[in-house]
Amino acid sequence: MPLNQALLGKEYPPVRYEVGREKLREFAESVGETDPVYHDEEAAHAAGHPDIPAVPTFPIVLTRRVGQKVYEDPDLGLDYSRVVHGEQEFTYHRPIFAGDRLLAAGRVAAVQVRGRHELLAIETRVTTEEGEPVCSAVMTLIARGTAAAEPAAAAPPAPEASAEPDPGASAEPTGGSA
Fold first, then answer.
1. How far apart are the C-alpha atoms of 65 and 7, rounded to whole Å?
2. Is 28 within 8 Å of 39 (Cβ atoms)?
3. Where in the chain are the domains?
4. Which fold would CATH assign to domain 5-19+54-143?
5. Rounded CA gap, 57 and 68, in Å?
6. How far apart are CA 93 and CA 101, in angstroms?
7. Beta partners for 72?
């Protein structure tokens, strides 16, 4: 079933997220980040940060939550079992720190057909509760085999069988010699 193109531009209510130190440490560990700045408050302060900063890919936590609201929208018509993640892009306005209270709002940014597949782009805008821009992200999902099928080309009519022999056809065998 194809995605509902009428939802292009639809905005979804924001998700609230309070950034905790332990969540930042756990995420940093999960991606193999060993720099003490991402684990230790003293190291973060010594580097000039007000608190432990998030590793650059941490906003995926927010985009995943926002994305879930979008792709669970029954009006969209997305069969998540047919989805693969295509691309993720972040644009940063400022770092995320422990203690930040964030809002992440999403919208359907694009729905494109590529052959038998559809690409769904979900844009997430992350701000502080006060409205300060933090980052934005675009997540592109590929819905495999969901594009509307193009009408099949009409096959040429089959030649009609003739009961009479073709006068130009030879009854002699062709090919090699005996």
1. 19
2. yes
3. 5-19+54-143
4. Thiol Ester Dehydrase; Chain A (3.10.129)
5. 18
6. 15
7. none
Structure tokens that stand for 150 in this block: 């193009």
Alpha-carbon torsion 166, 169, 170, 174, what sign? negative
C-alpha to C-alpha distance for 37 and 46, rounded to whole angstroms:
8
> 3-state secondary structure string, 27-42?
HHHHCCCCCHHHCCHH
Distance, CA of 106 to CA of 122 (rounded, Å): 7
Going residue by residue through the chain (178 aa), what tens digit of pLDDT does each one get?
889 999 999 999 999 999 999 999 999 999 999 999 999 999 999 999 999 999 999 999 999 999 999 989 999 999 999 999 999 999 999 999 999 999 999 999 999 999 999 999 999 999 999 999 999 999 999 999 998 865 444 445 555 554 555 555 444 444 444 4
Q: Which two tokens stand for residue 135?
A: 């980052």
* Helices marked H in 17-91: 21-30, 41-46, 60-71
Global pTM? Answer: 0.78
Q: State whether residue 77 is helix, strand or coil.
A: coil
